Amino acid sequence: MHFVEKDPGQKRLDFVNKLKSKKIIRAPGAYNPLTAKLIQEIGYDAVYVSGGVMANDLGFPDIGLTTIEDVSTRSYLISRVTDLPTIVDIDTGFKSCKETVETFEEFGLAAVHLEDQIERKRCGHLDNKELITKDEMVKKIKDCVSARKDENFKIIARSDAKSVEGIDKMIDRCKAYIDAGAEIIFPEALADEKDFEKVRKELSSYLLANMTEFGKTKLLNFKELENLGYNIVIYPVTTQRLAMKNVEDGLRDIYSSGHQNNVISKMQTRKRLYELVEYEKYNSLDEKIFNFSTKGHE
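The structure assignment produced for this chain is given below.
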């Protein structure tokens, strides 16, 4: 029922071609399908689904409490409404990397990233993270690579080792991850341009930069990252942060004032919502709504 033109295979091919173009792929996080539609409409290159955001949306902290069913189902619902490739955070692999990759590939995703923390992980920008061994992570990556059917379905290896072992040991880990079959490396919680430059100099793979707010990383313009040689930039929690701040402010205002009149100007209009869900296009599918128009719903 969604007016999407591209099948998962084409989305994956688009993702691969965008990587080869050497122009950085900008991928904001989508915490629901409607946000994914907005990301595409504005003109971004890909959609990102954050494991932390999925946990937060369920009312959990990001400590490995979500299941493969939680994340894969939401990821499928997000990816199916857009022609853009979707990248998903699969945390530590949900116990079986083989099953996880098979599930996410079947659900139409373009890429997944796997991290080298222990199963009871934590947000990549918090202290006191614990890592699995390099060899354990290498085995996980090999399991992921061997489980995929489409070579355009990309396995991204994230390393959280910088704040635990230092940047040099993190780079050594990442080299082993590349040798294991990861074509894209996600070095988590780098500090600044110096760190980004050092990683680019040392690694031969495609690189992903995380521009999350309120963390350990200096927020850089996407052009700066592109010039530093990075291939993907994600904004994982940005849309959820924007939404929750405005929801909280609005609810507090309504609670104290007793009405919505003070916050109407901050709301998406009915007309704009109907445009985004492509209400009028459904006229062609059901004669009961054939005469619907967004006109008059401002």
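Interim note for the steering committee: The domain at 8-236 is CATH 3.20.20.60 (TIM Barrel). The longest strand covers residues 154-159.
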